[in-house]
Amino acid sequence: MYTQERTAMANLVVGGPVAVNSYDNAIVAALVENRPVMLVHAFNGGYLRPAELAASSHDKGVKLATALDPATKDAQGHLWHISPGGFFGQRPLYFIESAAGQVTPPPTGTADANAGRGDDGAPKPQRRRITVHQDAPQSTADTLQVGLPAKVGDKWRGKNGAVEDTQLWVVTVTPWGGITFVPITHPDAILGFKDHTVAKDSEARLTYNWGGDFTGTVINTFYPRLPNEWDVPYHHVFT
C-alpha cells in the first residue's frame, strides 16, 4: 500500500519506544527532515488545520476539517511542521507549527534576523505554534491556541519564564504507525477533541489520556502524510 518515497532509514527511533519502520516515510520526513505534513486523524480521515489561517491571528484554536477546500490549500492551512525544540530528559521535544501564515524572516544583517537562526546560519521563519492553556485540561476554556510565543494570551505563556514550555510536545510513534502528541506541561493528557467528538469542525483541545502511557489510543492518533500520500486510505488500521 505504501510505495512512494521509501526510506532506507529502517528502525529509526524518534521520540518514543516504538521504532519507525521503513514505510513510515512521512514520520521520518516530519521529525527528521522538518518537511511539512498533513496530520490526518485515524478515526475519520479528517485533518488538523488552524481555525484562522491569517498570520495576524494568535488567539484562535485548531479544528478538524473533513474537506480540503482551495482556500485552505492555497494558504497551506492543511500543513504542519513538527520542529525540534530541545529535550525532556532523554525524550526529544517538538513544536507543532502551522505552515499557514508563516512570516518571512527579517533581512540578513538586521537585529531581528540575528535573534533566531538555524544551524545553517540562515534566519528561521516565524511560524505560529500550537500552544496549550496552562489550566488544561481541567478548564472549560479553550485549551489550544495557534500563535507566536510573544503574541498568545497570558494563560498560554510559560509559567517558568520560558515562553516555549506551553508549546513543547512529546511526539510518540504508536505501534500502528501513527503519532500521538503529549504536552510536557500536562503529561497525563494528549491532543484530542472537545467532548471526545471526532467530527467535522471538531475543536481540538487536550483530553485526558485514559490509556496511562505515551502512546495514547487509536482515536487520538494522527497519521502524517506527505502530499503524494494524501490519497492513501486509512481504514486499514482497523483491519
What separation lies between the terminal Cα atoms?
14 Å
Q: Rough shape?
A: globular
Please give the oligomerization state of what you see. Answer: single chain
Strand order of the largest sheet: 4-5-13-12
- Outline the low-pLDDT stretches: 1-13, 113-120, 234-239
Estimated radius of gyration: 17 Å
Described by strand count, sense and barrel closure, the largest sheet is: 4 strands, antiparallel
Task: Give the fraction of residues assigned to helices.
Answer: under 10%
- Number-wise, the strands total 14
| SSE arrangement, N to C | EEHEEEHEEHEEEEEEE
Approximately how much beta-strand content do the residues carry? 25-35%
The count of helical stretches stands at 3
Structural class determined from secondary elements: mainly beta
Q: Could you tell me the mean pLDDT?
A: 76
Topology, element by element:
Elements: E1 12-13, E2 19-20, H1 25-31, E3 38-41, E4 47-50, E5 62-65, H2 70-74, E6 80-88, E7 91-98, H3 111-115, E8 129-132, E9 144-147, E10 169-173, E11 179-183, E12 189-193, E13 202-208, E14 222-225
Antiparallel strand pairs: 1-2, 3-14, 4-5, 5-13, 6-7, 7-10, 8-9, 10-11, 12-13
